[in-house]
Write a structure and sequence with these properties.
2 domains; nine-stranded mixed beta sheet; FAD/NAD(P)-binding domain; 21% strand; alpha/beta; elongated; Flavocytochrome C3, Chain A, domain 1; four-stranded antiparallel beta sheet; binds flavin-adenine dinucleotide
Amino acid sequence: MKRRLLLQSGLMCLPLSALARGNLPQEYSDVIVVGGGSGGLTAALSCREYGLKVTLLEKMAFLGGDTLHSGGYFNAVTDEAVKRGEDSVELFKQQILKSAAGYADEDVVSVYAASCGAALEWLKSQGMKFLPVPHLVYGGLWGRSYKPLQPSGTGYVQVLSNACLRKGVDMRISAAVTGLVTDDETGRVVGVRVTYRGEQRLLFANRGVVLASGGFGANRQMLAQSSPLFAEMGSDSHPGATGEMIYIASSVGAHLRNMEFIECVPGGIEESSEQVRLDYDPTVVMLVDENGNRFVEETSPRSEIFSAYRSKNIRRCFTIADSDAVERIGLARRKSLYRGLYSGRSWRCETLEALAEALQVNPDHLIASAAELQERGVLNKPPYWAVRVFFKIHTTLGGVAIDTKARVLGAHRAISGLYACGQMIGNLHGKNRLGGNGINSAVCFGRIAAESILKDS
Ligand SMILES: Cc1cc2nc3c(=O)[nH]c(=O)nc-3n(C[C@H](O)[C@H](O)[C@H](O)COP(=O)(O)OP(=O)(O)OC[C@H]3O[C@@H](n4cnc5c(N)ncnc54)[C@H](O)[C@@H]3O)c2cc1C
């Protein structure tokens, strides 16, 4: 099946001897990075900081990938949080492993949990600015998410791409990688085939190729093959999240993991790109069904919330919050909520009875549900807000398996010359990704890939 998909799309592993006989234009670098999101920009910049000649290839006409329109939250265990006794690397690691439900590799998770603090400091040293106090984000389980001052994920892309430009990374947009080039004798990955400005070229990398090409949430065919349930659902992914590099990597022997795990979260409605949401901080919101009943603990992992929604066959679902919670939502998102009042996508009422009437849910059930949270100090300050919840594909969790050095694993050992970071990795989050554990995996393993390239060659 995989091979058929590759052949249909003309994407393949290409042995060097066959290519050497062709007439394609050829170029040379030390390192080639595939993808211009946070992972690719980090890997490229880090390699450049080690003095290597780097070419970054991004197939879209702009950099950023999913990173650009993400929430930007970055989970990290900082030294300060450890000193204050609020957090530890071990706790972070155990939470990731528990949420992965046996489908992640413990050694890789250990390195990941331990590296996020240093990755956050590195981002700051590049010019990223974060709010000083960490948040608990939806599905995050712990208050260790650092929010950039720049809106959404834009800060990562601006800061890292500016640094790449300043330091001389050769960055190319509209440059789609369509194959990996391998050495006939050793099997080492030595370059890529790319379509750049309408022309096919071969780019050779004598130190390594880093795959930072994200997930496949925008590829209906891959979604249908991986997990048919999700094939028709709306998706949050950017249009370039088509996952071809995962199959191209498998054509050189990369071991794919967890391709069937797809993460769904409450999102906006399909016809609108504007997100009208209330569930940014799960500790201060309530999720109810069409009868006004709570159907899940709001702070549960994302996979559990989606499972409860599906298994209970819920037809209409709402998130409800009070004015205190709404005041704490960032300005841009709050504006969307206010706009929603006029477009019929959000509701605001002085009493829970009035809200129940507006939502056409049972008022007694809604009041009883709210009382459960009011005991915990939540939902006490009118006016009350509500938005309708639609579940959408948020992230694909499958991809290539890596080792602790970000080297892509084949059936028995690492594939020489091939590295991966970010959403491309399939053995990190297992069944469920903790909220705030996306960009950090791109930055951590982008940096680790660069270190490994330096040491391996
Ligand atoms: C709506 C939304 C909100 C999110 N919020 C958060 C959050 O708050 N915190 C968090 O940690 N995570 C969040 N995530 C997840 C996070 O965005 C991703 O995990 C992270 O951005 C992945 O980074 P990446 O560099 O691996 O991939 P991306 O940022 O997606 O970059 C991959 C790039 O590779 C390019 N590419 C793909 N194939 C090729 C090819 N063949 N040739 C050349 N280029 C190619 C793509 O076009 C893309 O630009 C969110 C995701 C979504 C969708």
